[in-house]
Amino acid sequence: MVRIVLVTGGCRSGKSTYAQALCQGLLGRKVFIATCPVVDEEMRRRIRRHQEARPKDWDTVEEPTALASAIRAARQYDVVLVDCLTLWVNNLLYEAGRPAGPLRGHPAGHPAAQLDEEHVAECCQQVLAACGEHPGTVVFVTNEVGMGIVPENAQARLFRDLLGRCNQMVAATADTVVLMVCGIPVPVKGSTKASWDAKGVRAVGRGDPKRVPGGEV
Hints:
By secondary structure, the protein is an alpha/beta fold. It has six helices and nine strands. Helix 4 (85-96) crosses helix 6 (154-173) and helix 5 (117-132) runs parallel beside helix 6. Residues 102-112 and 194-217 have low confidence and may be disordered.
């Protein structure tokens, strides 16, 4: 039976490091599903750092939009790490607005090609259905983007709303949700047992993470 974990938090809060360490502590074959496209040199360097930080025995699948299909294709792996939902939603939003590549159900070049919450909810449901067919553990990384000021432009507000809807749906289904704050994992939902801790951090109780001697975040 699948176990779903959602790791969320702000930028540079330690989400990816924690999620990778959590996965590394689990037994079995592991695959990293990367949703980040290479759009410039800065992103290329970021991707390279992530690749170098992953153990050599991990496999990597690059899939910017067809996330449900990628998870279904990873049934032979015991542990699946998806990093991240933030860029997945970003990619869906970008592709929806391309005249040559509308999303299903929207005619090319039509204003309705703009992604809406209903469509994102449908995409998320497909991803969660794919997770339900997986026999192992699926860990998602995402960002909290709704804690700051309201964005001044409509596209940024739409992205915030779409990702917020996605995060809510995944969190509702997830067995475990962890909020990363300054590199410290704060349990939000589900198990806080040591078997699910990463990099020497043990959650002694809900909302009370403590360091274990020798641990590092």
